Amino acid sequence: MSEQDELVKMKEQVYTDPRPSTYFDRFHERARTREPDWVYEATRSLTLLYSWSFFRARVISTDKVPPTGPVILAPNHFSFMDHFFVAASIRRKVQFMAKSQLFKPPMQWVYTHGGVFPVRRGARDEDAFLTANTILGRGGCMAMYCEGGRSRTGKLAEEAKPGIGRLALETGATVVPIAIHGSSKVRNWKRLEFPKVTIQYGDPFRYEKIAEPTRDQAKATANQIFDAIKVLYHGLEAHGRRGAVKQVRQERRLARQAGKKRTAAA
């Protein structure tokens, strides 16, 4: 049996939203003008408990996320739970770009108060990019998936969508690559299967701002970001959670030793 056969099938993708763009104006306006409120914290607390209890979710190197300033969190995407895996264990409030089909009563109230804003898939949605630029422009933290939608195969995509590259270049925001390992089988909860999930944050980096990046520039940048995610992901796959933690600790020891040597030399 292949890995894909072991996964509970997802619903068919819906790539277009028949509702007019004006329907989503209120959601963009809220995300642009207001921070996530108490709904965010309540949801975070509940999903953190759920993640730890059922998926034994553990995080590695959350200190890689800058405490202030504009930040783009860039994870791979397998599961509807990935939003919560990414944001549950860091102090910053993370605003998400999510497909517009999710914005239906009653859950759209939860999404908007939690800082989520829509992107109309199948359309060149400039409103979504304006909202993302506004959030980052005020020094906020948001998450955007390199692959666009969720992987349906349980494997990483071959290449990234250009959107995250465009946003990184337009804003000059710090990018933090994130690998989420194990979440491809979260959908198997219907079979009472609860996989162990590990979330590892990588070294932050940024690009010089370009006012109007070309599609080729955006695509190349997106693939560079995705390559950083792949390195983290394959490391988790090869060495497991314990191996990744051991490597991070070793890197920190070496960094401290190097710092002491520089101090002694000075």
Structural commentary:
The chain is an alpha/beta fold and 266 residues long. Helix content is 42%, strand content 12%. The protein is built from 7 helices and 7 strands. The chain has helices at 25-33, 38-55, 82-87, 107-113, 126-137, 163-171, 215-265; strands at 58-60, 71-75, 94-99, 117-119, 141-143, 174-181, 198-201. A 7-stranded mixed beta sheet has the order 1-7-6-2-5-3-4. Helix 1 (25-33) runs parallel beside helix 5 (126-137) and helix 6 (163-171) packs across helix 7. It is globular, with a radius of gyration of 19 Å. The model has no long low-confidence stretch (mean pLDDT 90).
Could you give a short description of this structure?
The protein is α/β, with parallel strands linked by helices.
**Sheet bearing the most strands, described?**
7 strands, mixed
Oligomeric description of these chains? single chain
Shape: globular
Uncertain ranges = none
What's the arrangement of strands in the largest beta sheet?
1-7-6-2-5-3-4
Q: How many DSSP E strands?
A: 7
Global mean pLDDT: 90
Class by alpha and beta content? alpha/beta
> In angstroms, what separates the terminal alpha carbons?
61 Å
